[in-house]
Give the backbone structure.
Amino acid sequence: MVETAVITSLVVVAALLAVSAFFSSTEIALFSLSDDRIAELAADDVRGEDLVDLREDPHRLLVTILVGNNVVNIAISSILTVLLVAYLPPELAVAGTTLAATTLVLVGGEILPKSWGLANADSWALRVAKPMRYVGLVLWPLVVVFDVLTRGVSDATGGDPGIERELLDDE
């Protein structure tokens, strides 16, 4: 019985890691393309309209991706903590989880997916544009909270809440 729970938890961690990889590769693909390149893709592919729509508000898009990725990465860490606490003393379980989750997320959820997303930016951006619209709908309540919060803090601290647009326009 315990083994089934461990296997199930590891399968869930693997699935969550795949979702983390999705968000990371999507982030780099969507933000590495210039507005001109997006316009070209939209002219050549019907999926490009979704891509154009996503990039109309780059701050909201970034918040959506980061909310999704952070929820997934924290879930990975939480599941690994529960697993390791069952087999190790708590202080070792926390250290083990930190090491395991950091390694898994950095390698499998960040570095490799971002490298791949950058190398395949055109095709990946077109492929993920519609799914990201659905992700935005599912995460909408959280995205609104963090969108408003980050814009407010940015305004209050003298930052530019439209910095993503400026950076994209500079390309």
In short: The chain has a mean pLDDT of 92. The radius of gyration is 18 Å. Residues 2-170 form one domain. The chain has one domain: 2-170.
